[in-house]
């Protein structure tokens, strides 16, 4: 092979290598853009999904479930949540925390009741004089005195946008 053919061959090899490297960079760049654009709807949906989001921190233990009951009227609040609540969410407890999400809720006035159903029997257990033996909590900081708070004490206004609430349980 002549000296000029060897140079042409070497230059061609170097040019091919440069083109291949450039093509790989373009492919990785395009793949990165496609992945970012594909995950964008999920990120936007997660951040902008309107609803009532209830955080329940500092649960006594991770045994059982958390039941969140959303009421739109005083009827059955808070004791008859299985029959009277507008929406009910049951969540497993993870690391002594839980989060209940109520989506597609129309604007209005609501109240929340939350119980820590440790034995998972679907109700708030009480002792022989009626004092709860499982954790409970209500929206708007409503407290239970000699009886459960009223719907009016626990009620809050919801405008149809995102609403984040924190309810701490009493034991």
Tally of separate helices: 3
- Sheet-strand content, in percent, reads 25-35%
Rg value: 29 Å
Overall morphology: elongated
Write the H/E string, N to C.
Answer: HEEHEEEEHEE
Structural class: alpha+beta
Largest sheet: 5 strands, antiparallel
Name the average pLDDT.
83
Describe the structure.
It is built from 3 helices and 8 strands. By secondary structure, the chain is of the alpha+beta class. Strands 2, 3, 5, 6 and 7 form a 5-stranded antiparallel sheet that branches. The protein is elongated.
How does the SSE layout of this entry go?
Blueprint: H1 3-48, E1 51-56, E2 65-71, H2 81-84, E3 87-92, E4 98-103, E5 108-117, E6 136-138, H3 151-154, E7 155-158, E8 163-166
Parallel strand pairs: 1-8
Antiparallel strand pairs: 1-4, 2-3, 2-5, 5-6, 5-7
List keywords for this structure.
171 residues; alpha+beta; 5-stranded antiparallel sheet; 3-stranded mixed sheet; 8 strands; 32% helix; elongated
């Amino acid at each position: 092979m002549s000296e000029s053919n060897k140079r042409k061959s070497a230059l061609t090899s170097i040019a091919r290598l440069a083109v291949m490297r450039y093509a790989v960079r373009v492919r990785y760049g395009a793949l990165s853009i496609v992945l970012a654009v594909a995950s964008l709807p999920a990120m936007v949906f997660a951040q902008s999904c309107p609803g009532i989001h209830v955080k329940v921190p500092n649960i006594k233990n991770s045994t059982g479930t958390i039941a969140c009951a959303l009421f739109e009227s005083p009827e059955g609040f808070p004791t008859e949540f299985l029959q009277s609540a507008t929406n009910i969410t049951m969540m497993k407890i993870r690391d002594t925390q839980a989060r209940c999400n109520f989506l597609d809720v129309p604007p209005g006035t609501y109240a929340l009741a939350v119980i820590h159903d440790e034995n998972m029997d679907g109700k708030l257990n009480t002792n022989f004089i009626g004092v709860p033996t499982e954790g409970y909590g209500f929206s708007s900081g409503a407290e239970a005195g000699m009886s459960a708070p009223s719907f009016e004490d626990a009620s809050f206004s919801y405008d149809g946008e995102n609403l984040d609430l924190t309810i701490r349980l009493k034991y």
